Amino acid sequence: MSTAGKVIKCKAAVIWEPKTPFSIVEIEVAPPKAHEVRIKILASGICRSDDHVLSGALKVTFPIILGHEAAGVVESVGEGVTSVKTGDKVIPTFVPQCGECSPCIHPRGNLCKLNDFGTFVGLLPDGTSRFSYKGELIHSFVSTSTFTEYTVVHESSVAKIDAAAPPEKVCLIGCGFSAGYGAAINSAKVEPGSTCAVFGLGGVGLSAVMGCKAAGASRIIGVDINKDKFPKAKEVGATECVNPLDFEKPINEVLHDMTEGDGVDYSFEVVGHTDTMIAALTSCNMNYGTSVMVGAPATGSEITLPPGLIITGRVWKGTVFGGWKSRDSIPRLVSDFMQKKFTLDPLITHTMPFDKINEGFELLQAGKSIRSILIF
């Protein structure tokens, strides 16, 4: 029996307030309105950005359904939807692409004005939600909300992908892999023969390492306080790894020593802490080095630094979703994965059923996982 046009009752992991576990409850998911798509989620990755909401570092409106790194199948579409149809395999994207606003049109832009990234309003573009629990409105997270069996997104936030793509792997292209890989390829434009340093060797950091390697970097230094991540980093392309806790001097000075006083050509901060952002900046060459902020900082974070760190020529920049235009790039990245141009297997350390979501976050918080994938 078709569910199109009907309210669907399904399981979802809801957070009622920060610093509390997920509650798996039965919610109601309303049908998609005009230009919206309702998706049956097949697999969803657990990302550090979701954990930032749990810890209270990111300020959002509760109650909320988190999750933003997933793959699924279109269950139904609203009036006017033309890019996908029922039965299509898709990846919802937290960075929409309407194709009409100035960031979408600009060749270097990708932060579509329909995004809910940073503002965290928690509603669809029309100002309403399709989620409810016992009559109470449930907020969405960055235009996606994938910790639920069904979600509703705006058409600008969904990309059709190869029907044969394994959802439990390509879901990573919805956030972690694309963010890190693109930070090196698109945002930094790493050059062959260059020296890179990646601060933070989680899923996004390892993807940045992979991007540096794909771009032809000759030296890729992984930086993390968890030595257990070093073998994985070397597996995906790091030439060496260092633990800041092993040194009495600041890590930026260590990296300058390792590069004969020059500093690295490119550095990537994939932690989201202001102190590591400054360390990454000062690790790169004072004249021609480029440092890219990839990790999501806590809401309200501020940085103070002397202008001399920049005026000498260093480039300091940020990136969202690795600089990719989401709906254009996601299908191509999935195609590249299917053609074995890169692998996602090293990033996936755990696979578990959806109802084990709290265990998945415990693994992340304990530093025992890179990416845990929830299967629906």
Which features would summarize this protein structure in a list?
alpha/beta, seven-stranded mixed sheet, six-stranded parallel sheet, 11 helices, 18 strands, 24% strand, alcohol dehydrogenase (NAD+) activity
Give a verbal description of the structure.
With 376 residues, the protein is an alpha/beta fold. The protein is 24% helix and 24% strand. It is built from 11 helices and 18 strands. Strands 3, 5, 6, 9, 10, 17 and 18 form a 7-stranded mixed beta sheet that branches. Strands 13-12-11-14-15-16 form a 6-stranded parallel beta sheet, with helices on both faces. α7 (251-258) runs parallel beside α8 (274-283). The longest helix has 13 residues, at 176-188. It is found in: Cytoplasm. It is an enzyme of class 1 (oxidoreductase).
In short:
Its EC number is 1.1.1.1. This protein is α/β, with parallel strands linked by helices and 376 residues long.
Shape: globular
Spans where pLDDT lies below 50 across 5 or more residues: none
Mean pLDDT: 96
Distance between the termini: 20 Å
Order of helices and strands: EEEHEEEHEEEEHHEHEHEHEHEHEHEHE
- Overall structural class, as computed from helix and strand content, comes to alpha/beta
Q: Please describe the biggest sheet, giving its number of strands, its sense, and whether it closes into a barrel.
A: 7 strands, mixed
Approximately how much helix is present in the residues? 10-25%
Question: Based on DSSP secondary structure assignment, what is the total number of beta strands?
Answer: 18
- State the helix count: 11
